[in-house]
């Protein structure tokens, strides 16, 4: 179809999606919106579809990111552009498909959410002397003291915590076990729970360290609720997740100068690359401190 303009090609492509592919109205609206951006880019460059190269599509994508568009939105736009060029090539409107090898932008690495030390201390300082309160205090102290996953802590048996050695034996991912140190406050909280609370909760025999009200092993979901309730009680404004204390544990260690490979072992990461995401958090913190404290930081 000689003489077809980019706008004509977009119209034909959208018709194809609607009639032959049965695309939903929301999908068509989204593609039309994204392709209008692309048409504006081609028009400003004075290009027809047959003159587009891979570099042109790449420049368009880079411009989207520079304009502040999220990586996920830019990737969605690229899907529409790829579809347009694939359609145009298949229909004989262009001699090649210049968009087929263009890669979507990588989503930014989501930094773990770590609480400030003061917030963690408030969260751990849960009041109450009931069996459930003593259990919750021991649970939270162990989570922060060891950096364990919630599933690892609720999976602990009584004998897995060695007060004499000040260690805990954790069952990690893939059945891999590791021994981690436990701080004195956490050990004291566990001891208080074992002496004053667990016997009250233990309605039947079993090795589980943390018990629910029925005497069974505390579930991961219940432990998460303990964390959320403690955060609300402590007035912690930040959103908490099952990994909040684990993230905080790692970040606080690195901020205090711990070696990343030591933190890797404590967290049970198979690769140090997984642990290094926490160094991004500390570098951000250092940059903020530098910018506000150094007299020549912004000169």
UniProtKB/TrEMBL annotation:
Domain Core-binding (CB): start-end pairs: 4-89
Active site, per annotation: 149, 173, 243, 246, 269, 278 (o-(3'-phospho-dna)-tyrosine intermediate)
Listed Pfam families: Phage_int_SAM_1, Phage_integrase
PROSITE patterns registered for this protein in UniProt: CB, TYR_RECOMBINASE
Cell compartments where the protein resides: Cytoplasm
Predominant cellular place of this UniProt entry's protein: cytoplasm
The family this protein is said to belong to: Belongs to the 'phage' integrase family. XerD subfamily.
Protein name per Swiss-Prot or TrEMBL: Tyrosine recombinase XerD
GO cellular component: cytoplasm
A GO MF term: DNA binding
Coiled-coil segments: none
Gene: xerD
Gene Ontology terms: biological process: cell division; chromosome segregation; DNA transposition
Keyword terms, alphabetized: Cell cycle, Cell division, Chromosome partition, Cytoplasm, DNA integration, DNA recombination, DNA-binding
Lineage: Bacteria, Bacillati, Actinomycetota, Actinomycetes, Pseudonocardiales
């Amino acid at each position: 179809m000689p003489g077809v303009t980019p706008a004509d090609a977009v119209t034909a492509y959208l018709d194809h999606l609607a009639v032959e592919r049965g695309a939903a109205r929301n999908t068509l609206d989204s593609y039309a919106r994204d392709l209008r951006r692309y048409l504006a880019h081609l028009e400003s460059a004075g290009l027809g579809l047959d003159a587009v190269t891979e570099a042109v599509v790449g420049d368009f994508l880079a411009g989207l990111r520079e304009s502040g568009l999220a990586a996920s939105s830019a990737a969605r736009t690229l899907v529409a552009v790829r579809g347009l060029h694939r359609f145009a090539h298949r229909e004989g409107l262009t001699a090649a498909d210049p968009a087929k090898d263009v890669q979507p932008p990588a989503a930014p690495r989501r930094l773990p959410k770590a609480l400030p030390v003061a917030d963690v201390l408030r969260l751990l300082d849960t009041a109450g002397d009931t069996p459930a309160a003593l259990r919750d205090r021991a649970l939270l102290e162990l989570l922060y003291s060891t950096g364990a996953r919630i599933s690892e802590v609720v999976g602990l048996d009584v004998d897995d915590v060695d007060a004499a050695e000040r260690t805990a034996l954790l069952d990690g991912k893939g059945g891999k076990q590791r021994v981690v140190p436990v701080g004195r406050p956490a050990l004291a909280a566990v001891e208080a729970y074992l002496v004053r609370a667990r016997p009250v909760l233990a309605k039947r025999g079993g090795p589980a360290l943390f018990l629910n009200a029925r005497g069974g092993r505390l579930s991961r979901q219940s432990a998460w609720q303990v964390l959320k309730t403690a955060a609300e009680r402590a007035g912690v404004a930040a959103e908490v997740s099952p990994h909040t204390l684990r993230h905080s544990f790692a970040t606080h260690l690195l901020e205090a100068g711990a070696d990343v490979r030591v933190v890797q072992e404590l967290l049970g990461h198979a690769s140090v690359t997984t642990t290094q995401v926490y160094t991004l958090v500390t570098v951000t913190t250092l940059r903020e401190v530098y910018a506000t404290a150094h007299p020549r930081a912004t000169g």
